What we know:
There is one protein chain. The chain contains five helices and three strands; from the N terminus they run αββααβαα. By secondary structure, the chain is of the alpha+beta class. It has a single domain, classed as 2-Layer Sandwich (Potassium Channel Kv1.1, Chain A). A three-stranded mixed β-sheet has the order 2-1-3. A hairpin with a 5-residue loop joins strand 1 and strand 2 (about 30-35). Helix 4 crosses helix 5 (about 105-115). The longest helix is centred in the C-terminal third of the chain and has 17 residues, at about 70-85. The protein is globular and about 40 Å long. The model has no long low-confidence stretch (mean pLDDT about 90). This is Elongin-C. It is found in: Nucleus.
Amino acid sequence: xxxxxxxxxxxxxxxxxxxxxxxxxxxxxxxxxxxxxxxxxxxxxxxxxxxxxxxxxxxxxxxxxxxxxxxxxxxxxxxxxxxxxxxxxxxxxxxxxxxxxxxxxxxxxxxxxxx
Length: 115
C-alpha cells in the first residue's frame, strides 16, 4: 500500500460519530491521526467529541489554536503511552521521557487537555 492510499484510509477512519480515529490539528497546521480510544484519555478531547453532532461522512477533527506541533506530537505519544499502560502496576510502567526544552509548554497543554 502506498502512502497516498494509507493517508486516504486514515482519513476515512476519522469519519462519523463512532470513528476509529480522530484528527488533531496543531496551531501551526500539522495533523495527527490518533486512535479514538487513545484520544479519549484526555477529558477535554472527550468532552469536545461528545458535544459535537457529527454526520457519518464528516471528519472528527479538533483544532488546537494554542498548541504547537512539537507539543501536540508529544501529547499524542503520551495519550498512546497512558492507554497502553493503564491498569499496570507502577513498577511495570517505563518512565515517559519528556525533552526538557518543552516541559513548560507540555505542562500547559496537559493542564488544558486534562490528561
